[in-house]
Amino acid sequence: MTTTHILETRNLVVEYQQHRAIDQLNLAVPAGCVYALLGGNGAGKTTTISTFLGFNRPSSGQVLIGGRSLQDQPELVKSELAYLPENVALYDLLSGAENLRFFCALAGIELGREQTGRLLSDSGLQADAHDKRVGQYSKGMRQKVGLAIASAKHAKAMLLDEPTSGLDPSAANDFAQRIRAAADGGMAVLMATHDLFNAKQVADRIGIMKQGRLVEEFDAHSVQHDELESKYLAHARGLA
Amino acid sequence: MIAIVMRKELATTLRDGRLLVLGLSLFVLFAGFFLFSSYQLQAQRLEKQRVGATAKEQWNSQSVKNPHAAAHYGIYVFKPDLPSAAIDPGLTPFTGQSLWLEPHKRNLTRFNPSADDVLANRFGQASSSFVLYALLPLLIVALSFNSVSQERERGTLRMLHSLGVAPRALLFGKLLGLLTAFWLVMSPAVLLAALTLAGQFELAIDDLLRLSLLLAGLLAYYTVFAALSIGASAYFRTSRNTLFCLLGFWMGSVFVAPRLGAAIGDVLAPNPSASQFWDAIKTDIAQGLPGDGSKQQRETAFEAQVLAQYGVASKEQLPVGFVSLNRQYNDVYSSKVHQLHFDRLRANFATQQQLAHLAGWLGPSLALRSLSMAIAGTDLAHQRDFEDAAEEYRRYFIDLTEDWDRERSHGTERSAKGAETDWRSVRDFAYTVPTVGFSLKASLLPLAVLGAWLGAALWLLAHSARRLAP
Predict the structure, then answer these.
(1) Any idea where the ABC transporter domain is (chain A) (predicted)?
(2) Which of B159, B165, B168 to mutate to test the interface with A (most CBs of A within 10 A)?
């Protein structure tokens, strides 16, 4: 039996301004899996996420989403993705509910008031905050609106770029649980992060990137925290 | 998708404090200028009616006298104003508002309101039209210079791209949202103008058509600024660069283009000085146009023709007054020479106006100004139409008095008399401003320039979508 990979790259190379940001990347994230991409600054984590989103054009290789090529059917495959950057960018002058309805409408999903409220509540946003302007939201609250957007889209895959950076431990833990729940619901999650603790806590697989290459990949449950830290530091210091 | 973006833009723009604060300030400014202007227009209309009626009554109540002497008393006629002139006074403050109609000579209009203006008003162009064509585009720039660059800087552009939003749909949605919000905030000003004009003047269908066309012209004009502003915001990487670029464009369009256009017109088609103009008329009357002979030669030939026509040997034997006949003959020639020089002068004005549009590549303000003045009936074409009608009236009443003079005298005597019943039989000067079709015909070039700007702005907006990388 073959596993269907929701997110996949094959020999992906991304170059810009004569710099090879991604070098022969082979990555596969199946449904229900949280994949954590670790690596130092400039390792290529964010470029990988951006390439899945179509922000970067591959120099060679393939990007597949749900088995379909991003290059061939960009609009179609984008509809299967949800994206949560480090700072979920929303419109400050709109409320959380209005932001959710706006982004969903752009994705072709019309939400009623009740459905909007339920999605926001399910993502952990307090009901009294739904109609407040996003300008008054904390970073964690914005992340929850982002999760609600992903949930409303029924996205097959979620791309997270440093999602817990700047969150307090409680919010980060809450967020990790929601990511885990989304994956358990069948979503494929690719998460670029510096946060080893969070990666170990939520991920099924972990890949370490360095200079655009995936230098090591392993089952997250097969390593302990200190072992993960040692692997990470070894690659960071060039010892591995 | 455009509609979704438009609704979001409308909501965020209306909630943005900038629109309310700037919009309210400009509304107050517009309302002040407009109310003052409409009050002034109303007062001017009443004054013109009053003075016109008084002048005609003075004409009517002249004593018994020679008809030609009565003609020399002259009649004042006044250029009527349309209600839309309250919105755009155009050239009214600088062109004369009345014409003194007298025998032998065609006069230029006189009594321009700016000559009576308070000193402070001669600095700058403080009027409601200045708010409409100069300040409101600045409001649009202030509202939209960062409409895309802000999305880029805050990261929402990446969110939108991740959802597969088409860049063109995003930009055109923003354009429609901005324009809708702008008009919603401006609607009290439009309402105020409509109610004030309806309260002060009897608005005819033509007036309503003019006001609707003015609104349509302004909509096109603001769309140019909004499209360029949003396009620039998509094209440039930072809000600062976008703002500098747009402010430069605004200044070029509003301040540089009209002055540059006027300078181009002056250099390429210079006007004669007043003394050159009148001297040339005097010389052509005295010396005659090519092939016509001098005044003395023309008069000699005319006398011979009249004697032959009546079959008499001398002027004294004529059954009609020769003095009047000869004067009428000279007046016809004088009118012909005046017409020639006035037509040349006006053709030069028209050439200057067209040449001024060479500066139209700097921005659409010059074209909008020309269009707006034409619609408000305060441009040169309307002035010319009034002057032509007044000249026609001048010839009518001068000819009438000469007819009385000629028919009531004999030979070279000057005994003809006219009385109050004669003077009262001269019909009033009844001039109606041409319809809006006349304005549009006179505005083909500015309409074309404004249309070209609208097309170019929308094309640039669509083109800048290609650079809309996250």
Answers:
(1) 7-236
(2) B159
